[in-house]
Design goal:
Layout lengths: L2 H24 L11 H33 L14 H6 L7 H10 L1
Helix pairs in contact: 1-2
């Protein structure tokens, strides 16, 4: 198993644990209503947003692990060239080389 796959799997396990903790927070719903639980409601809504972020990250990590197992991890989805290993070290979830990522940001 490559170092990249090991790093991605470790990050996936950590993210799954984070998701489990957030889901436990969400089990206790605060009281919603005028003057009641405004702090609790805010905290609950923040946890809900965090849950959605974690679910997206888990999906991305699973896709990257599948790419790594298929031998396509580290290949730019846009131009097909290898992604610089230093970029992957800094941003393991990168799917574009730095040049394509910059072009994408300028267009967006």
């Amino acid at each position: 198993m490559s170092d990249a796959v090991k790093r991605l799997q470790a990050e996936l396990e950590e993210t799954l644990a984070d998701l489990k903790a957030v889901e436990a927070q969400l089990e206790e719903r605060p009281e919603f209503g005028l003057g009641t639980g405004s702090t609790g409601a805010f905290t609950w809504e923040m946890a809900l947003a965090r849950k959605e972020q974690l679910e997206e990250k888990i999906e991305t990590l699973r896709e990257l692990i599948a790419r790594a197992e298929a031998g396509t991890y580290g290949i730019c989805e846009t131009c097909g060239k290898p992604i610089d290993p230093e970029r992957l070290e800094a941003v393991p979830t990168a799917t574009q080389c730095i040049d394509c990522a910059r072009k994408h940001v300028r267009v967006a």
